Amino acid sequence: MQIDTLSRRLIDRFQHGMPLCAEPYRAMAEALDCSETEVLACLERLEHGGGLSRIGPVFEHSRAGASTLVALAVPEARLEQVAEHINSYSEVNHNYLREHHYNLWFVVTGPSRAHIDAILAQISAETGLEPLDLPMQAAYRIDLGFPIGEAP
């Protein structure tokens, strides 16, 4: 995917700190000295080109409810079916295939730990697989961002 100058500037400026206001795309446009229409078109191009997966906040899970990392050991023949089933839960916000005995890893969030426990019990009953529940013990914050700067 070719990234144009506006896309580069938008990514560098707004990977972190999207404006919290009634018209965030207009505020982004003003900061980038372009139109709101150009910002929205740029975001759409990035999404359709596979360079953008989502726009939204990242919440401190412990203030918004509860979450846990979960792993399943899924037989290869059932992998697609089980992954699709896991993805059907609105409480699941990430789902990854890994090279390991525990090959399907996902994050479950909910309003309470009891809600998460109920979801994990339901997944176990529906799949016949036992979820490995890996709740976070401590958070180590990193500023994950990838400045891309000017085109080479």
UniProtKB/TrEMBL annotation:
Molecular function terms, GO-annotated: lyase activity
Catalyzed reactions: siroheme + 2 H(+) = 12,18-didecarboxysiroheme + 2 CO2
Keywords attached to this entry: Lyase
Entry-linked Pfam families: AsnC_trans_reg2, NirdL-like_HTH
Iron listed as a keyword: no
Similarity field: Belongs to the Ahb/Nir family.
Protein name stated in the entry: siroheme decarboxylase
Boundaries of every Siroheme decarboxylase NirL-like HTH domain copy: 8-48
Pathway listed: Porphyrin-containing compound metabolism
Enzyme Commission no: 4.1.1.111
